[in-house]
Every structure is written in C-alpha cells, then in structure tokens.
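Duplicate of #3305? Posting structure anyway:
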C-alpha cells in the first residue's frame, strides 16, 4: 500500500506541476495583455486547486505512514541534509504552496474586474510555483 501511494504521489506531482505552470502562465499572459477573464480561466484555476489539494493529502498520508521519527531523532534528521529536505523542508514548502494557491483562488473569486481576478491568480500561483520548483526532489524525479 505504501509503495502504491508513493508511486501515485510521484506521478501525480507531474500533473500538479503542469497545472500550476499552465494556470500561472495563463494568468500572467492575460494580465499583461489585458485580456478578459473567462470561464476557462475559472476552471483552470479550480482544477489546479483540486489537484494540488489531492496531492497534498497523498503526501501527508505518506509522511505519517513513513514513521521517520521511530528510526531517527529530530536532531539526527536535522543533521542529515537529505533527510531534513525530505522530512521537513519539502513538506513545509508544499503546504505553503498549496496554501498560496488556495489564497489566490479565494481572493480571485472576490474581485469584480477581469484584471484584478487574473492578477490575484498570477501573483499567488507564481509564488506557489517558485516554492514547488525550489523544493521538488529533482534527483528522485530524474531517477524514477
């Protein structure tokens, strides 16, 4: 079960990254060119929100199922750069990224004009994208 979830988490991440990139660049492009906000933009930002939340839930299940703390103390984990990245930095960064996506989505719904809606998505999703790109375990991604 754990290996299935781990594989799902790994491959679902490609979908999440793809959706964040597409939604971000769409919002940035439409903001810069002063295009109108459309139903397609709403669906795109909503789908990004949904897939990122699902991915976060899978990741949290994996984090709790891995039981890192029975094998090592927190001090030992923090001294080991790879373990620190996997156990602390990656989960915290991804939780923040999903929170930013959620905030951007919520804020954009409250705006009344196309420019403001798209700007909210562009800002928050861009910051989330930077966080995701910064904390993806690239060695694991390229080896699998």
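Output from current build:
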């Amino acid at each position: 079960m754990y290996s299935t979830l781990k594989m799902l988490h790994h491959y679902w991440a490609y979908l999440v990254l793809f959706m964040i990139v597409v939604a971000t660049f769409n919002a940035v492009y439409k903001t810069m060119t002063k295009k109108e906000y459309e139903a397609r933009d709403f669906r795109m930002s909503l789908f990004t929100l949904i897939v990122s939340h699902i991915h976060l839930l899978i990741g949290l299940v994996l984090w709790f199922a891995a039981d890192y703390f029975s094998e090592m103390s927190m001090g030992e984990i923090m001294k080991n750069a790879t373990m620190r990245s996997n156990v602390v930095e990656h989960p915290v960064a991804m939780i923040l990224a999903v929170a930013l996506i959620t905030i951007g989505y919520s804020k954009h719904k409250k705006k009344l004009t196309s420019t403001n809606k798209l700007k909210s998505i562009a800002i928050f999703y861009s910051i989330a994208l930077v966080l995701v790109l910064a904390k993806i375990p690239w060695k694991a991604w390229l080896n699998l």
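Confirmed duplicate; merging threads. The chain has one domain: 2-143. The first helix runs from residue 2 to 32.
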